[in-house]
Amino acid sequence: MAYLYLSTIHTILVDPAMGCTTMSSLDPAPVSSPWFLPFAYVFVAKNVISAFEAMNCGSTLKGWWNLQRMWLIQRTTSYFISLLDVIKGKLGLSETTFALTNKAFTEDVSKRFEQEIIEFGSSSIMFTMIATLALLNLFALVGGIIKILMDFDFKALEQLILQIVLCGIIVLLNLPVYQALFVRRDKGCIPSSVMLKSVVLASLLFLMPIY
């Protein structure tokens, strides 16, 4: 679980978000290099085949997209908590405790479930992690694009195009998180306390490489 978590954090935090923030690329090859093609091929082929298999098994493209969203959430939350539990267990410390989310299935919850709206509605640390990473990638994407446009540095665009694309994909995957943070007002939205903590944490992480 540890290596899965660390590899995911590198994919969604170190490379795209930090790359857009610091205007530096960690990719092994720029877009103009022929060596970029194998990496692009693996990325595109993996997702095309995955979507085709999902639809071939009776799912829909939207269902497959939601599966990628849940994969991202699982890799950045539950795997991290599992890693902490293993470390604390090795050190002889107490295990992590969880505040269970509300499982009451009311009429409002049922309606949101039928509309395929994700249910948050809790101040769990898991939702703080999800919201923080979502906001960090949003800040990095907007900040990177603004820097390129203001400096007219289109050579940097060539170097950072992969980071910008990855940040854009992660932002699209996290659209329900942004809606739960800033748009929704139902009981399934992300609480304001979580929103405040996430904005502060994401802002600090975004500004750290700059200063």
TrEMBL record:
Keywords: Cell wall biogenesis/degradation, Glycosyltransferase, Membrane, Transferase, Transmembrane, Transmembrane helix. The keyword Lyase does not apply. The keyword Acyltransferase does not apply. GO terms for biological process: cell wall organization; cellulose biosynthetic process. It comes from the Eukaryota. The chain crosses the membrane at residues 125-148, 160-182, 194-210. GO terms for cellular component: endomembrane system; membrane. InterPro entries: Cellulose_synth. It is found in: Endomembrane system. Its main location: membrane. GO terms for molecular function: cellulose synthase (UDP-forming) activity. It holds the Pfam family Cellulose_synt. This is Cellulose synthase-like protein E6. The lineage of its organism: Eukaryota, Viridiplantae, Streptophyta, Embryophyta, Tracheophyta.
